[in-house]
Design goal:
The chain has 717 residues and is α+β, with helices and mostly antiparallel strands. It folds into 3 domains: 45-218, Chondroitin AC/alginate lyase (Glycosyltransferase), CATH 1.50.10; 224-351, Glycosyltransferase, CATH 1.50.10.100; 354-712, Beta-galactosidase, Chain A, domain 5 (Distorted Sandwich). Strands 7-8-9-10-19-16-15-12 form an 8-stranded antiparallel sheet, with no helix packed on it. A 6-stranded antiparallel sheet has the order 6-11-18-17-14-13, with no helix packed on it. It has a 5-stranded antiparallel sheet with strand order 1-2-3-4-5, with helices on one face. Helix 14 (312-321) crosses helix 15 (328-343). Residues 70-272 form the Alginate lyase domain.
């Protein structure tokens, strides 16, 4: 038999992992859980099916096969139980019998097809995991068995990925990361080192493609992945697996220090985007259900722990995940958690506020994540997009925001219009409504101008521009804020959004303050959209509920919005709603005389019921250069079981635009006990720059990009 060994584990590491068998450590529990799951799957009849529906039985059985082969290979090494190796070998031999008899998949996708799956992305996954499994069991295979597996599975796959689909191999994309990782790992597993070199440096070996080009171009210096957290948590697994391969087999690359430690930065960046409940914001085309418990994130946390160190946040993350990667990297984290728990209890992770720059050199805008705790320890998180478009998965929502507190997303992201792997829904692929609604500007918490989409829904144009950061300030315990410009997203208009969280003793939770300024020539319609969930409780304006509903518009996403109700507003408009046990009150105004609120719901022009039925309210105003200003207060408590309702009205009473011009904006906010004046510079400035502006014969002066003045209001006895 040809001498082989696992390409991701040494025998010393295997011995250390074996010591965890039966222990109550995190690694011990992980191994036990994997054994239980694997034994249950092995009890099923072996099956290598033919073609079927995307997401159907055949698709999922191939996925299960590679998942459990990968586990069985490592468990064979750790336990030396021969039946685990036999399971892998039996499946490999059946694939060797059938793989070349399968034609390319009958179901077509927008991506090239494989022999097993409807898109080669899934075939890349199969090859990556199966190659790792093979490397773990090849030592107990005969030379003839090894050669047959190579000839009838691995080499045809390598040829397909690097010759037939060579145009896709070097694609800078999450698919490309899977492709290069799969090819490199397979080449190493079967002793064809040239494929490892190709995977690292590209087919032409000129750095135009390959793993190093992928991580150099897709991740900013901050580590942020340009397609957003949903695709980041998918791309992070092959990224970390292949990084560990290179660390062991190409040490000259020095991968964990490459490009300013981009591997460590990108793990940190992914974790720091998550909401306090562990779910990832649905930035760009994204599912709303992905969280830090994803297996790829578990691998990433383990890799980071070994190569960059363990801190309290990683320990808290591992405790939530309740799993580690079954590898020596995971063992480092497991032992660190065990030692920490012997000394004290391990708390929940709290990631600090962070601005994550985008683009290969960090020059293509950023994503901002501000977090603030209230007196009870609840974390509010404010997210704003002022970075890159995100290529083909990008949404047209630069300067869009989302807001989270009390365990729920309050100003919500729709995510993608897709029912993943539900074959009757267009094969589980992206639905037409993904373009006609979910990616449109009106589907986000942003301002839509003249009922048009940013960049006219032109991906190439959108990819050529990006937001410009103004300030990101999170040092104060009272107020944190960020501001950015988007000056090339609507013809003839520049936009600036400045958002803040303000903590006041009289308020239960930080107050969200939002200033959205649009400057340009001519009159425009501005639709300030707010995606919420829950029950409308009250307004301060009269509105008409429509007995016969029509759409809010004819295109650009408006054709999917039912115009449910609407009414004219004056001064400060108020909309209050109940979401689960919490009340939220939004108050908004503008520098224009006109104001109108529309209550909408998705579902119009949707004959196949592809869209989720979700509500929104839109504050509409008309004018030239305009400032739209709003606040969102979190307050009160409702318990239906005990019929309790506390502080259902909140304490903020109004917001008013005192003035704005090209230099600055000034707004006034009244609460029950405070008068708040917020002053924001509308030009790029420094922390030491001094500003002076006069509106309505009142002079306002401050230093830095913004300032807040809070005056207590004397209460009459």
């Amino acid at each position: 038999m040809t001498k082989t060994s696992p390409i991701l584990l040494t025998q010393v590491e295997v011995s250390e992992l074996a010591k965890e068998l039966g222990r109550s450590s995190l690694m011990g529990k992980t191994i036990d859980a994997h054994i239980k799951d694997l034994e249950e799957f092995m009890a099923l009849p072996t099956d290598v099916p033919g073609h079927g529906e995307a997401g159907g039985y055949e698709h999922n059985r191939h996925k299960q096969n590679y998942t459990y082969m990968n586990l069985a290979g490592r468990l064979f090494q750790i336990t030396r139980q021969q039946h685990y190796a036999d399971f892998v070998i039996r499946l490999l031999e059946e694939y060797a019998d059938k793989y070349l008899t399968f034609d390319f998949h009958v179901q077509k996708n927008t991506n090239p097809t494989g022999r097993l799956f409807h898109q080669i992305l899934n075939e890349h996954c199969w090859l990556l995991y199966t190659s790792l499994a093979y490397s773990c069991v090849a030592e107990v295979m005969t030379d003839a068995q090894q050669q047959r597996i190579k000839n009838r599975i691995f080499e045809p796959m390598l040829d397909m990925f690097t010759v037939k689909y060579a145009h896709d191999f070097d694609r800078i994309h999450n698919h490309g990361i899977w492709a290069v990782a799969a090819v490199g790992i397979c080449g190493l597993a079967i002793g064809k080192r040239e494929y490892l070199d190709m995977a690292v440096y590209g087919i032409e070996r000129n750095d135009s493609g390959g793993f190093l080009a992928q991580i150099s171009q897709l991740f900013g210096p901050s580590g942020y992945y340009m397609e957003g957290p949903y695709y980041h948590r998918y791309a992070i697994r092959p990224t970390c697996l292949f990084a560990e391969i290179l660390h062991r087999h190409m040490p000259e690359v020095d991968i964990y220090n490459y490009k300013g430690k981009v591997i460590g930065n990108t793990v940190n960046a992914l974790l720091s985007t998550a909401y306090p409940n562990g779910e990832f914001p649905a930035l760009n085309d994204a599912s709303r259900t992905m969280s830090i418990t994803d297996m790829g994130v578990q691998v990433a946390v383990s890799v980071y722990s070994k190569h960059y160190g363990v801190d309290d946040n990683l320990l808290g993350m591992a405790k939530i995940q309740d799993r580690v990667w079954m590898h020596s990297c995971g063992l480092v984290l497991s032992r660190a958690l065990e030692q920490a728990e012997q000394k004290a209890s391990v708390g929940m992770p709290f990631w600090p506020s962070v601005e994550l720059n985008e683009g290969p050199e960090g020059t293509h805008g950023a994503q901002g994540f501000i977090r603030m705790q209230d007196k009870k320890g609840d974390v509010s998180q404010l997210v704003m997009n002022y970075g890159q478009h995100g290529m083909g998965h990008g949404n047209f929502d630069t300067l869009g925001i989302s807001f989270f507190n009390r365990g729920q997303e309050v100003l919500r992201e729709y995510g993608f219009a897709r029912w993943v792997n539900v074959e009757p829904k267009f094969g589980g692929r992206y639905l037409d409504e993904n373009k006609s609604y979910a990616r449109q500007t009106i589907a986000h918490n942003a301002v839509t101008v003249d009922q048009k989409c940013q960049n006219n829904f032109d991906v190439a144009r959108a990819d050529s521009v990006h937001g410009t950061p103004h300030f990101f300030s999170v040092d104060s315990d009272v107020i944190s804020g960020m501001s950015a410009f988007a000056n090339q997203h609507y013809d003839g208009l520049s936009m600036q959004r400045s958002v803040f969280m303000l903590a006041l003793d009289e308020l239960e939770s930080p107050l969200l303050i939002d200033l959205y300024r649009l400057a340009g020539e001519g009159d425009h319609q501005y639709d300030y959209s707010h995606q919420y969930e829950g029950q409308i409780i009250r307004t301060n304006f009269d509105y008409q509920s429509h007995q016969e509903v029509s759409t809010l518009g004819a295109d650009n996403g408006y054709q999917h919005l039912w115009n449910i109700a609407g009414g004219k507003t004056s001064d400060t408009a108020l909309v209050s709603w109940l979401q689960n046990n919490t009340y939220y009150t939004w108050l908004g105004t503008s520098s224009n005389d006109s104001g109108e609120v529309f209550f909408t719901r998705t579902g119009a022009n949707d004959p196949s019921f592809n869209l989720r039925s979700e509500p929104a309210f839109i504050y509409r105003t008309h004018g030239k250069t305009s400032l739209l200003a709003s606040i969102l207060e979190t307050h009160g408590y409702f318990n239906e079981e005990f019929e309790q309702s506390v502080n259902a009205r909140g304490k903020v009473s109004s917001i008013k635009v005192l003035g704005h011009d090209d230099v600055s904006s000034v707004v006034q906010i009244f609460t029950a006990n405070s008068l708040i004046i917020l002053m924001v510079c509308n030009q790029l400035t420094t922390a030491r720059s001094q500003h002076s502006v006069t509106f309505n014969k009142i002079n306002y002066q401050w230093t830095g990009p913004y300032a807040v003045d809070i005056t207590a209001i004397k209460q009459e006895k």
